[in-house]
Write a structure and sequence with these properties.
The protein is mainly α. The chain contains five helices and no strands.
């Protein structure tokens, strides 16, 4: 069985490893590609993290709060609306045809 000091050292090493991984992910130029089916959930979670209402996101992006709410419920927004909201919520669209 490891001593308390040994456990703390192992825990600190793991924290450092995870912090290095987080830093690598944050500085990466690789896109975080996700399917469009997850877009509504991503938008809602990012809006919640920023503690913004749908109306505030609408005001900041130039679309209505109703449009933002519809997007979060899986509505069918225009690409222009998605791009505008994406600037506020810090995401970009990647479309392949």
């Amino acid at each position: 069985m490891k001593s308390k000091q040994g456990l703390l050292e192992a825990l600190n090493e793991e924290i450092q490893r995870l912090q290095a991984l987080a830093n690598q992910i944050e500085s990466s130029d690789e896109p975080d590609l996700r399917p469009v089916s997850e877009l509504a959930d991503i938008m809602k979670s990012r809006r919640d993290l920023l503690t913004l209402s749908s109306g505030e996101v609408g005001d900041l992006s130039g679309v209505s709060g109703t449009t933002v709410r519809a997007m979060e419920k899986g509505g069918n927004p225009t690409i222009r609306s998605l791009q505008a909201v994406g600037k506020v919520l810090n995401f970009k669209l990647w479309i392949e045809v």
